[in-house]
Amino acid sequence: MELADLRIFVRAAELGSFSKAAVTTGVAQPTVSRVISDLEAEWDGPLFYRTGRGVTLSELGEEALTKARFLLREADQAAEDLKAFSRLPSGIVSIGLPTSIVEPAIPRLVNELRAELPGIRLQVYEGFSDQIERWLAEGTIDIGAYSKYREGPWSRNALLLESQLVLAGPREGWNLPPEIDFARLSEFDLVLPARTNGLRIMVDSVARRMKVPLNIIADVDSTIGQKAMAAHCGCYMVKAPHTIADETRHGMFASSVIRNPFITRHVTLVTGHQRPLSRASREVVFRLTEILRRLSVPT
Q1: Domains along the chain with CATH numbers
Q2: What is the pTM of this model?
Q3: 57 CB contacts (<8 Å, ≥6 apart)?
């Protein structure tokens, strides 16, 4: 089994035709037929069913196509890494992030790359955790970060970005202490994300258990929308502190850490398994990890 043979097989499978595969790979059609026959003999079964309009994959062919694509991607990536070893990493790197991470992290990352690795270009996808997990599984993105919530602290061994949720609202007239009990959330008009959001699921769960009635006046998924409601409607948000850091520094919002219980947000960084990471992707993983860890440190 040679890589050239695998490429011929993949092209025949994608095009559904030996003659078209011959044209696109630059070999004679008898060569395509011979390669397929040799592979069928080596793998002990038919790869295609011949039809009047071309060929279709057999069950063995479907399985072989998945594995052949994987092997060819690895080989191509290895060749690209070796050719680029003496050069700075370059290429397109796709990232999936929740909106609350995009605002504080991506400008820092872009500025670092422009200054030090200008050959790397980012494709940034915004979504919820379930969307990001699906994009990773499908191979749409190379790198993903998504949030998990729990009561109390996380183990610091694998800490990437950790923050305790706060009650946040307009700075004007703010007279709350640095920490407030969860039970006091019933005193405020709240704007929270929709019920499918991980933060909302955790807040609702704690409220039910503690029998705390929440006065939720609007379900707003976007961070921008929640901030607008807080700024112009006198509402209060439950947020991770870094998501309102700029507004807090400029005197727009104030916040108090929610306690009894503390609710902790932990951000996990995950890479896809559809293809090996390029040098550019590995560089982005390293830099994004450092940026997210710095966001965990109070300023």
Answers
A1: 3-83 (1.10.10.10), 91-157+266-296 (3.40.190.10), 166-261 (3.40.190.10)
A2: 0.57
A3: 13, 47, 48, 49, 65
